[in-house]
From TrEMBL:
<keyword id="KW-0378">Hydrolase</keyword>
<keyword id="KW-0482">Metalloprotease</keyword>
<comment type="similarity">
    <text>Belongs to the peptidase M48 family.</text>
</comment>
<keyword id="KW-0862">Zinc</keyword>
<dbReference type="GO" id="GO:0016020">
    <property type="term" value="C:membrane"/>
</dbReference>
<dbReference type="InterPro" id="IPR051156">
    <property type="entry name" value="Mito/Outer_Membr_Metalloprot"/>
</dbReference>
<keyword id="KW-0645">Protease</keyword>
<dbReference type="Pfam" id="PF01435">
    <property type="entry name" value="Peptidase_M48"/>
</dbReference>
<dbReference type="GO" id="GO:0004222">
    <property type="term" value="F:metalloendopeptidase activity"/>
</dbReference>
<dbReference type="GO" id="GO:0051603">
    <property type="term" value="P:proteolysis involved in protein catabolic process"/>
</dbReference>
<keyword id="KW-0479">Metal-binding</keyword>
<protein>
    <submittedName>
        <fullName>M48 family metallopeptidase</fullName>
    </submittedName>
</protein>
<dbReference type="GO" id="GO:0046872">
    <property type="term" value="F:metal ion binding"/>
</dbReference>
<feature type="domain" description="Peptidase M48">
    <location>
        <begin position="91"/>
        <end position="275"/>
    </location>
</feature>
<dbReference type="InterPro" id="IPR001915">
    <property type="entry name" value="Peptidase_M48"/>
</dbReference>
Amino acid sequence: MCWLCDFKTSPLDTPETTHRWQARRGFLLTAGAMVATGALAQVDVGAASGIRKLVPAESLENDARQQYNQVLADARAKNALAPDGHPQLLRLHAIAKRLIPHTTAWNPRARDWRWQVNLIGSKQLNAWCMPGGKIAFYTGILDQLQLDDDEVAMIMGHEMAHALREHAREQASKNMATQGLSRIGGAVAASVFGIDPRVTDLIARGGANLLSLKFSRDDETEADLVGLEIAARGGYRPEASVELWKKMLAANGNGGASWLSTHPSGTNRIHQLEANLPKVQHLYEQARQDR
């Protein structure tokens, strides 16, 4: 799962789905004043359609909760899970508190999510958000890139956007359609096919690893723009999105971020974000006034 992603187009992408995203992307990039007044949030993200129906949202969120708890347990066993009161963890919680209120417009299910944010001690430059709002940051991305709060908010908003836009659900459904039961978790198999969960327990342990799902370039573009708006509404500087990616490019140039090669061109990403900064600027200014 992102922050470590692969962006190859899925073999199941169809002209219809491609056209639908191109139209939506065009809306995101050209809406101008409509974006600034919140029209972006009117895009329907709550209803499952097409291939997503193969994996019920409830089942995927349940699998995510189980896998998230396992990740935390593994980190705890290695003394790598930040304890309550850790300064960096408190910082992440404070940022999340400002972003979460702006998530439900993008997905009505988020209203009932039990959001969690944890910090894992690791040199990895990584962060992710599982379906259902299960977030993890690794100390490597905070420390090695020396991120300020605005830049952290851009990463967090981006990862939240993946969950809100149900990118993992779509990719898991595609995996199911192309690779069968061996690639999905037991809870999902039980829900979709009526299989006894006890029979699929082995599949659940080695199946749909939500941390290994690959997002498409379109998913990443969408997450960039949705995350930018969420962070701006939370009162974080939109320009930080550009500053963040400049840091990433610099880290990659120093050989310290090989994971960046799996993302779309950092230069193109920066240009796209720069083009959208004016559309969210007054959301940021209003948020600052409200605070």
